[in-house]
Amino acid sequence: MSVTALIVAAGRGTRAGGDIAKQYQLLEGEPVVLHTLRALRAHPAVQAVVLVVHPADRPGPLSRLPLPPGTILVDGGASRAASVRAGLDAVPEGTSQVLIHDAARPLVSPEVIDRVLVALCNHAGAAPALPVTDALWRGSQGLVSGLQDRAGLWRAQTPQGFALDRIRAAHAGWSGPPAADDVEVARAHGLDVAIVEGDDDNLKITHPPDFARAAAILRRHRRDDQIMDIRTGTGYDVHAFAPGDHVMLCGIRVPHDRALKGHSDADVGMHAITDAIYGALAEGDIGRHFPPSDPQWKGAASAIFLRHAAELAGERGYAIANIDCTLICERPKIGPHAEAMRAELAEITGIEPARISVKATTSEQLGFTGREEGIAAMASCLLVAR
Ligand SMILES: Nc1ccn([C@@H]2O[C@H](COP(=O)(O)OP(=O)(O)OP(=O)(O)O)[C@@H](O)[C@H]2O)c(=O)n1
Ligand SMILES: C[C@](O)(CO)[C@H](O)COP(=O)(O)O
């Protein structure tokens, strides 16, 4: 299957108003027709694009349009049907199917295009539509004059897809007044046209308020497509024991029969947490921000490091969602101090204690921590873009 998209953009957009035709007016900062071109070109099945334009637009809005390379330009006619015919004549050799689409429908989704193409495997034509769900009235002079049965009624959309040779023949054989769409032309020629599920977002910009509706839909699509910006980081640190009478762990002075050796206050837990935050930010580790070779950090309170990492996360637009720290040692016992540690860490990082976990494990007397040669700490944190 070789598919060409034929986009009709030669209308005057009189109902939409504005200084230039609606397809060149801006939708979220870009001309409507550029959105439409991108939507069709982005579909993997579409191999060529024909854009039918009004000759009067060529020196004006069209000349300012950054047309995707390879777009085939052709002048349209006085009616939509005439523009389609001009486009059909310009469809490149080798095309087997054509998707005829309104430039004024910039929000067509790949799923709608897929459904049309799939149905074309079994039908000469296929087009998206939505069933009429509201009650239908007839009205006259501001009064309801009757009810119209809505059963079997559909709201037609584009792209309308056809086997190229069949729709060319159908347009060539058409003799009535300009047709509303290509399905009408196709059916008059005896082609079977399948209805596939349309999409409420695939609106046609017709009247002035449609621009705001389309912009809101586009913004929603962009939000839906956005990757949630979350980051995780891990940290690990070890400090050896030295003579002393206390250790600093997660900002709390814990009495012990030894101290931890280090350039700063050797708070192994806080260092692991700080490195987890730097890691999540891809900002190296504590040593990069506070070099041990720099004498000003000798004996420094590790709260300085953690506060810096937390503030850096804030400057980069991230909130700390949680911190989890595990201290690995046989002694001292951490449990009695864990709540105070959480409160201290919360104070330094500016997040609620409920988002901070401090726990401990022994190593069953195995390895350097089991032999009580030092304390190790592991930490992880999650950063979420604000
Ligand atoms: N002579 C025409 C008329 C219409 N179209 C295109 O057909 C699509 C659907 O038509 P419609 O929404 O009716 O556009 P306009 O004819 O431009 O609008 P209006 O009737 O308000 O002037 C639009 O992308 C429009 O540019 C076209 O290529 N050539
Ligand atoms: C082809 C079409 O988009 C199907 O809904 C529509 O018929 C063309 O526009 P108009 O508003 O009917 O002129």
TrEMBL record:
Pathway: Isoprenoid biosynthesis; isopentenyl diphosphate biosynthesis via DXP pathway; isopentenyl diphosphate from 1-deoxy-D-xylulose 5-phosphate: step 2/6; Isoprenoid biosynthesis; isopentenyl diphosphate biosynthesis via DXP pathway; isopentenyl diphosphate from 1-deoxy-D-xylulose 5-phosphate: step 4/6. Keywords: Isoprene biosynthesis, Lyase, Metal-binding, Multifunctional enzyme, Nucleotidyltransferase, Transferase. Residues 230-383 form the 2-C-methyl-D-erythritol 2,4-cyclodiphosphate synthase domain. The keyword Lyase applies. Residues 231-386 are annotated as: 2-C-methyl-D-erythritol 2,4-cyclodiphosphate synthase. The record marks R150, K204 as: Positions MEP for the nucleophilic attack. Residues 1-230 are annotated as: 2-C-methyl-D-erythritol 4-phosphate cytidylyltransferase. 4-CDP-2-C-methyl-D-erythritol 2-phosphate binds at D237, V238, H239, H263, S264, D285, I286, G287, T361, T362, S363, E364, F368, R371. It comes from the Bacteria. The record marks R15, K22, H263, T362 as: Transition state stabilizer. Its EC number is 2.7.7.60, 4.6.1.12. Its cofactor is a divalent metal cation. A divalent metal cation binds at D237, H239, H271. HAMAP family: IspD (MF_00108), IspDF (MF_01520), IspF (MF_00107). NCBIfam families: ispD, ispF, PRK09382.1. Belongs to the IspD/TarI cytidylyltransferase family. IspD subfamily. This is Bifunctional enzyme IspD/IspF. It comes from Mangrovicoccus algicola.
